[in-house]
Amino acid sequence: MDRTHRLQMLVHVANSGSFAAAARLMDLTPSALSRGIAGLEGELKFRLFNRTTRELKLTQEGAEVYRRAVDILTRMAALDKDLVHKQGRIGGVVRVGVQAPLARHVLMPRLARLHDLHPDLCIETRLTQDPRDMQSENLDVLLHVGAPPPSRLVAQRLGQGRPAAYASPDYVRRFGELSHPADLVNHRCLLFRMPWAAGPLNHWTFERDGHREAVHVRPALATPDREALLVAAQAGAGIIYMACFDPAVLSSGRLIRLLPQWSCPPSFDIHLLYRRGAVSVPRVAAFLRFAREAFSDFDPQEITVLHADRARMSVG
């Protein structure tokens, strides 16, 4: 957590006289705000507040830090306002949490469009999808894969992953076509393993005519690196079961879809997470518009993703 964010916590606590009230103002949990103040006290090596069951007061040292914090934050707000309104342009820094696949295949190919519209914007990314980092890393926006946990954040659904089984033409020539999902048990399968999971995703599911077939595959490779899986599959190392990657890999023929007569149920959801009221901040609102449009433009044939209803993706 950066010091500016902690100074904001200090000012809100001092102004409201309550950790709980300050947490509501900042859209944080009381425990997160308490950790932030404790972290600031740890950095400064002295207490900022005297706490009793009845009242909360700044210490002498805390009052001095408060005075300087108000001055710093006022100057920063003025600077941000100047950046926003200078020549009618939007500027400033937007801190974004996003995993590498979404950054590489959805955001970065379209980033020039954002900077053409708003050349004063700076986008800083963190390789994370943990909602707790909205507080600890002071993120403005988070692209989250999976069901978002309960929180005070706004969660706007962009779409779902649309998985299928893929292999290179060379692999198919060497090992033959598949006629049924059960054939996968005799093939080299390249598995994705989520970093926080105990094991790889080794159950691949297929559907046809109302019948569902779940196959327990054996890994020839298990890795948390999705890009490595794509590289290995294109090089003929085996079969992947994946969603949400560059459709050009398929249109170029580097990978081909296996079992085309079977479909696969949608996998993970993809959400934009942001704080309530963030759309009133021009730099954040600009990035939210860009992210929604970038995802809507990604994979228009919905080969590797299913888009959410575009009517629900309007700016707040």
UniProtKB/TrEMBL annotation:
The keyword Transcription applies. It comes from the Bacteria. This is LysR substrate-binding domain-containing protein. It comes from Cupriavidus basilensis. Residues 1-59 form the HTH lysR-type domain. Pfam families: HTH_1, LysR_substrate. InterPro entries: LysR-type_TF_proteobact-type, LysR_HTH_N, LysR_subst-bd, WH-like_DNA-bd_sf, WH_DNA-bd_sf. Keywords: DNA-binding, Transcription, Transcription regulation. The keyword DNA-binding applies.
